[in-house]
Amino acid sequence: MNKPIVGGGPKKVLYALKTARRIGLENTAKALTAHNTCKACGLGMGGQRGGMTNELDEFPSVCNKSIQAQSTDIQPGIPVEVLTHSLADLRELDGHELEHLGRLSTPIYKSRYADRFEPISWDDALDLAARRFLATTPERTFFYSSGRSSNEAGFVLQLLARAFGTNNVNNCSYYCHQATGVGLGTTIGTGTSTVELEDLSLCDFILVIGANPSSNHPRFIHQLKKCRERGGEVVIINPAKEAGLVKFAIPKSPKSMLKGGDFIASDYLQPRIGSDMAVLKGLAKAVLAAGAEDTDFIAQHSHDFAAFRADIEATGWDEIEAATGLTRADIERVAALYSKAKSAVFAWGMGITHHLNGVDNVEYIANLALLRGQIGRVGAGLLPLRGHSNVQGIGTIGVKPVLAKEVMAKMEAAFGLTLPVETGLDTMACMKAAADGKMDAALIMGGNLYEANPDSSWAAEALSQVGFKLYLTTTLNKGHIHGIDDSEALILPVTARDEEWQPTTQESMFNYVRLSDGGITRLKTVRPESDILCDLATRLMPDSPVDFQAFKAHKTIREAIAKIVPGLEDLADIDVAKREFHVRGRLMHTPEFHTPDGKARFITRPLPPVRGDTLLLTTVRSEGQFNTIVYEYKDSYRGMDDRWSVMMNVADLAEHGLSDGGKATLSSDHGIMENVTVRAFDIARGSVMAYYPEANILTGTAVDPRSHTPAFKSTPVRIRAA
């Protein structure tokens, strides 16, 4: 019973086989081996090199996330008799049950005040959608995309919105890595990874902070294991001791499986939630004290180091220890590992960005890398761990409220348009406008905007204020049945990535653009997102200078993107050349930064106030989950059987009169979770961990002032015995 949990291993192989058997071995093989990009995380695999092959030609590059993502695509259509049940009946189902009802295979519509959906024809659905958008003004509409959609559909979506007259175009990155884009923009002048996958094969030090790749990016664990095998160091900084980051049995490695797994972390720091900046300042302080900074690099390739150094030296160890809960010796030990590294890569996730100072956190990761010249050369750099498989591509091709002036000018010239100049609203701004009754219509392409939002009760009410919502989706989720009581909702069924009628493209977290063939037919009644958008655009703007019907040919879309979006010039003939590529100008293998003078900048920020007397909640995902989609209730890596649970340090349990396995009420200023199971967990004092999206009812709508990202990872909470 006390045997330590190991990530990966035979149980994951058996799970994969069980899932494959459930959906059919032939279906599974067809889905996984076809030349289509994996639809799970942004690490990327598949495309023209083969369905289970990455850009280094490593095979098999596949994980449970890949199989889980495919499992819901390979389902029969949901019977109409099920779809027409009352909303009350559908709300009896949780997210897992809704996802596994089957594929949505017919358009459905709910009129205002109706208590259920009814089938509707494609033509009637598109006519209705056009009438509802035309019944209001463009500034009272918004257009949202998840990171699952293709570059082609995303480009048409943002062009449709801007041609219609609004820049209220946004995507899910505002709730995940927008802080990364802003923070890297101020320091090195770019918002994405500076490394490619091959760089991970050349480094001897990887720091992973605020992320749990064993659950969320399992194939990244392979790279961490290889670093250890080369004699390198892997340092994890995370308030919680995650089993899969301590030891992981790589399913594709017989040796790893036979010996019960490989050790991943060579060192592991567990700071208090919200103290990331203090940790990073402490590491910088120790590096400077050891004289390990790269003075030549700093002098030749950066600005503002003197102010940065002065601030670090003025920050006392007592302040750092009080903020982090770590000892000076802990931090100095890790700093010593970094100081001797020849080539270092820094990787981070939403444990860094989901704070009111998320941008500051990212800036200090960049500061720490710049301190030793670990950006701008081969084998070293910065790697934000993206979630959705094409979330980065969706941003690259313009699904965001503000575009560069040169991109807007090129778009206007290409199509003979005059585009709106008003600054568009980001995701949270659109939600708050909706809550204030200032949004009449919304187009939501993929994702689960309701459950992606903080403060679930508020989110449902805000969405309910939007008079008409058009959803494009493959399966049903809670976002389709909540927030629609007093409004209209139209849901249209779309093709999955490997069912697209024509090839599509996606961009990985390494800035690598892949080509997906599509072509698999499962349901004859679903349509590609791009087709739906083009038909809607034609109805909305029959006299538009943009020939949206021509954009039903994906090649035409890609040729337009190649002319308009810098870095994507190679997209124009990718379907002919079959040559996948890195976005031009993104990778940094020389110390030439994307700033006006080509030099990086050290940024100096004050530490946020310490909240030592307050429990702070972080929301987390389970191993059997991808974003809001729950594939299995059990979280095997944390030994949890119930998602309605909270995890705390055993000393905190005792201090609050709680016992492991007991029941409690967890509350915040925004909501309450009653009768939750409390579990002792190896986590920093003062920290509470609960599952996303269930715990979103406790989180608030306050955002980082620079990235406008909510603080999902640092919510003050209270707990008492039930």
Automatic annotation (TrEMBL):
<keyword id="KW-0408">Iron</keyword>
<keyword id="KW-0479">Metal-binding</keyword>
<dbReference type="InterPro" id="IPR050123">
    <property type="entry name" value="Prok_molybdopt-oxidoreductase"/>
</dbReference>
<dbReference type="Pfam" id="PF00384">
    <property type="entry name" value="Molybdopterin"/>
</dbReference>
<dbReference type="Pfam" id="PF01568">
    <property type="entry name" value="Molydop_binding"/>
</dbReference>
<feature type="region of interest" description="Disordered">
    <location>
        <begin position="703"/>
        <end position="722"/>
    </location>
</feature>
<feature type="domain" description="Molybdopterin dinucleotide-binding">
    <location>
        <begin position="615"/>
        <end position="716"/>
    </location>
</feature>
<protein>
    <submittedName>
        <fullName>FdhF/YdeP family oxidoreductase</fullName>
    </submittedName>
</protein>
<feature type="domain" description="Molybdopterin oxidoreductase">
    <location>
        <begin position="103"/>
        <end position="465"/>
    </location>
</feature>
<dbReference type="InterPro" id="IPR006656">
    <property type="entry name" value="Mopterin_OxRdtase"/>
</dbReference>
<dbReference type="InterPro" id="IPR009010">
    <property type="entry name" value="Asp_de-COase-like_dom_sf"/>
</dbReference>
<dbReference type="InterPro" id="IPR006657">
    <property type="entry name" value="MoPterin_dinucl-bd_dom"/>
</dbReference>
<dbReference type="InterPro" id="IPR010046">
    <property type="entry name" value="Mopterin_OxRdtse_a_bac"/>
</dbReference>
<keyword id="KW-0411">Iron-sulfur</keyword>
